[in-house]
Amino acid sequence: MKSRAMASDVRMAVAWLEEKSTARDRDNLARFGIVTPRYFGVSVANIQVLAKRLGKNHRLALALWATGWYEARMLSAFVADPARVSAALMDRWCRDFDNWGICDTLCFHLFDKTPHAWKKVEEWSHKRAEYEKRAAFALLASLAGHDKTASDAQFIAGLRLIERAAADDRNFVKKGVNWALRRIGTRNPALRAAALAVARRLAESPSASARWIGKDAIRDLTRR
Fold first, then answer.
1. Counts for the chain of helices (H) and strands (E), in that order
2. Where along the chain do its domains lie?
3. How distant is the alpha carbon of residue 72 from its chain centre?
4. pLDDT tens digits along 117-173
5. What are the helix (H) ranges across 20-69?
6. Which CATH architecture has domain 86-224?
């Protein structure tokens, strides 16, 4: 009975998403470089409307993810229960990332609330796949904005990961590293100084990717 009810809930959610699809939102996916095999074209605002109606429902989040639909997976970020997200689940979903939109949404709205977040920053920073590696830095950027209890030492360790990854010239890794560096630099004056020191070293790097990351972070952090 429970499995039939869950299947019905998934069908209803997917049907709602399909109904809310628009040509404009489909075009926006392409415009923002979000490439994924199964999508309807639904705005994040509408996905959040449905998430609010559904409330937290971890089993539903798992079932939505299993559909493979981009918008259903985005919805999972808002209805999953962070306390029930295991380290193994984070790894499985991270391996499924195929674009920056799903990567950043999961990191920003779900993964950074789990007890495994900091461990995954370190682990994923060693990954080879582009979106798995981006996830490390999207998650670090999210923690810089949301984790009010984290110590400066944790972010200093994050800056070391940033410096190590800065020569990776793949677009979505490079932009993720840059995002994390800038977000750490906005946390407090001490971390701003530390982030700027890293940015200035990167700006003098022989790596074009590292130079871009460093110079962009310097521009951002010195105009605040």
1. 13, 0
2. 1-80, 86-224
3. 16
4. 999 999 999 999 999 999 999 999 999 999 999 999 999 999 999 999 999 999 999
5. 23-31, 44-54, 58-66
6. Alpha Horseshoe (1.25)
Please report which helix (H) or strand (E) contains residue 146, including its range: helix 130-146
Pick the closest to residue 203 from 178, 171, 175, 173 (CA basis). 178
DSSP code string of 79-127: HS-GGG--HHHHHHHHHH--SHHHHHHHHHHTGGGSTTHHHHHHHHTT-
Residue among 209, 212, 126, 71 nearest 134 (CA): 126
Tell me the pLDDT tens digit for each residue of 43-52.
Answer: 999 999 999 9
Q: Which residues of 114-123 are buried (b: 16+ CB within 10 A; e: fewer)?
A: bebbbebbeb
Residue 115 in tokens: 């007890």
CB within 8 A of 95, min separation 6: which ones?
A: 129, 132
* Contact status, residue 36 vs residue 29, Cβ threshold 8 Å: yes
Model pTM score: 0.96
- With tokens 């677009």, the residue in question is 171
